[in-house]
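Input sequence (444 aa), recorded before submission:
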Amino acid sequence: MIHALILSAAHALPPTWMVTPFALLLLLIATGPIFFPAIWHHYYKHMAVVLGLVVGIYYIAVRHDSALVAETFFEYASFISLLLSLFVAAGGIYIFADVESKASTNIVFLLCGALLTNLIGTTGASVLLIRPFMRINRYRLKTYHIVFFIFFISNLGGLLTPIGDPPLFMGYLKGVPFFWTLTHLWPVWLVAMLLLSVIFYFLEKRNTKLDDVDVSEHYTNRIIVTGRQNFVWLIAIILTVFIDPNVMDGIPYISIHGKKISYVRELLQLAIAFAAYRTANKKAMRSNEFNFEPILEVGFLFFGIFLSMIPALQLLESLGGGSGDKISHHVIYWATGTFSSMLDNAPTYVNFLALSMSMHNLSISSMSDVVQFVQGEGVIYLVAISVGSVFFGALTYIGNGPNFMVKSIADQAGVKMPGFFAFIYRYTLPYLLPVLFIIWLLFI
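Predicted structure, token format:
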């Protein structure tokens, strides 16, 4: 993905047809689970790897640019090692919450979960919290409970840190300062959480299923956490994020095209993940129905995405034309959001960041250019891209990885979840889209 040779005179742009593997992979991700789920779930690994390798081999054999492929692979390793370690550590923690279902209880739960998402990621928080949330509401569980869980915890809640959602971590790997999201986006996060809470409150008040039944005696009002030692591993993983040779002296690194490539951080994260798995409370993992399939799916798909996206990024930068007036930040917000809702939001973030930077005569391949961009007039563009990619990921099941995972868990628990299009027109269009519009009016 990082591409050092984009606009140099010595290296021509790749042919437009080389975007085909990337476009095909994104199309398969969007349509496979819906239209041919059996074939997709059996062969998605092969599809992703083959499409990624087609581009990687082309760059090595035809363009003689093995350094770019190596740089992209190391960036992929940084991305997946964080997700894997957080996923494993969170999977060893089981929360048993047996408290009475009330509007106030649920809103506090969702807000706390949204905050926690920024520490352990959308995938980790969704795995950790969806079952206790369903248990709290077991006597009055409705579809909207799961939908708003997806809104709060699987998507919008992770706006405050690069750990929170994969698009923001991609930005961090590109050079966006770690605390930029918190310092610039907390008002957006706060307003979004407030608006969602108000909507959820009124839906809760319409849920009159237990108005004539006293179920208080069925609750023990206990919250039991099993596998607490894994919180130590989670803290350790978070601390490793700051081990970056680009910002800390004395950290060993690999140099490619003069760029410092991290590997110590990634090795530490994998070691912590191994230790967390081996020492995890087995009862907690069984209660969470822990398995590696969700993270394996992410790993294979993003291997293909990282490699196949190289030509798309190069061509997008060339379209910028060096003029910040060509595309407004308003268009960038809605375009980033639209693509994030129908495709994967992480590559969408990177593609529109590349395009926006090129309009300001800057390159996404240079960390110093990224820092200059976020500290200068490009800040409103990065706000639009960050909010658009994170928030719009909740519009569809395929906008963000945890969405389908939460739906699957709810389906297994007997919740009647809507289909792909019903999810959109019954829930995201009437409830979420107005929130996204208000956010645009206030902040973009």
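Checked by second reader. The chain has one domain: 35-443.
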